[in-house]
Amino acid sequence: MPEMRLGDILDDYCSRCRLLTDHSVVAMVGEQVRKVRCRTCHYEHHYRQGKAGPRKNQPSAYEQVLASINPLVQPVPAEKPRRKRKTR
Ligand SMILES: [Zn+2]
Fold first, then answer.
1. Residue 58: strand, helix, or coil
2. Rounded distance, CA 29 to CA 39, Å?
3. pTM higher than 0.70, yes or no?
4. Are strands 19-29 and 32-38 parallel, antiparallel or unpaired?
5. How many A from CA of 40 to the centre of ligand 1?
6. Which of 18, 44, 66, 82 would suit a FRET pair with 74, their CA atoms being 20 to 30 Å apart?
7. Spatial distance between the Cα atoms of 11 and 4, rounded to a whole number of angstroms
8. 34 CA to middle of ligand 1, Å?
């Protein structure tokens, strides 16, 4: 891995652009890049080593089922069976 220095350009994933874009190094710890700034949108963030960030939290299947259930559902009133009288 080539040595990096402050101001060097590297590729990283920008969560704003949602793309792998050119970033410049803005912070380092030892020889490790810690922070980078997107050269497209100037968004500064931790160096992700080109990986996309964690996925957005999506509701679990269980939560989706819960959400699909209307809590205000009322029981349908049962119809009383009518007795038919035979009239002569
Ligand atoms: Zn960006």
1. coil
2. 21
3. no
4. antiparallel
5. 5
6. 82
7. 12
8. 16
Calculate how far, in angstroms, residue 64's C-alpha sits from the geometric centre of ligand 1.
32
Q: DSSP label at 40? A: T
Between the CA atoms of 24, 25, 31 and 34, what dihedral angle is there, to the nearest 10 degrees?
A: -130
* 67 CA → ligand 1 middle, Å: 35
For residue 27, how far is its CA from the centre of ligand 1 (angstroms)?
Answer: 17
Neighbours of ion ligand 1 (CB under 5 A): 14, 16-17, 38, 40-41, 43
Q: Which pair of tokens denotes residue 24?
A: 């410049």
